[in-house]
Amino acid sequence: KGLAVHDGRRFSSVPAADGSALDVASVAIGADRTVWTATSGGLYRVRGERLQPVPGSPTQLQALWPEGGRVWVGGRGALHAWTSAGWRTHALPEAAQASTVTRVVHA
């Protein structure tokens, strides 16, 4: 559970600021070098030596793609986009509502 980083010599744990034990499903680095994680508890970003939750995040996320000031995350029944202005949800078609978005790619 959680996230570990390697500094070239050793691994160290990056705990969640709120103490949550998170299942990390995906990790990506944005153009601004922010490290993002899609987790069981929602979207987190590394700030200093801690994982900081993004307010209002959906939970049980599986997929992640940061791009152009937006972070796309996939979860059950929807693809979500976060910007500094907040969240926008794009529901999957009705026939796929029980499915989970497990990959996000740029085409």
Structural summary, described in words:
- There is one protein chain.
- This protein is mostly beta strands.
- 0% of the residues lie in helices and 49% in strands.
- The protein has no helices and ten strands.
- The chain has strands at residues 3-6, 11-14, 24-29, 35-39, 42-47, 50-53, 63-67, 70-75, 78-83, 86-91.
- A four-stranded antiparallel β-sheet has the order 3-4-5-6, with no helix packed on it. The chain has a four-stranded antiparallel β-sheet with strand order 7-8-9-10, with no helix packed on it.
- The model has no long low-confidence stretch (mean pLDDT 91).
In short:
The protein has 107 residues and is mostly beta strands.
Structural category is mainly beta
Average of the residue pLDDT scores: 91
Q: Tell me the fraction of residues in β-strands, as a range.
A: over 45%
Which residue ranges are poorly predicted, with pLDDT under 50 across at least 5 consecutive positions? none
Explain the layout of strands and helices:
Layout: E1 3-6, E2 11-14, E3 24-29, E4 35-39, E5 42-47, E6 50-53, E7 63-67, E8 70-75, E9 78-83, E10 86-91
Antiparallel strand pairs: 1-2, 3-4, 4-5, 5-6, 7-8, 8-9, 9-10
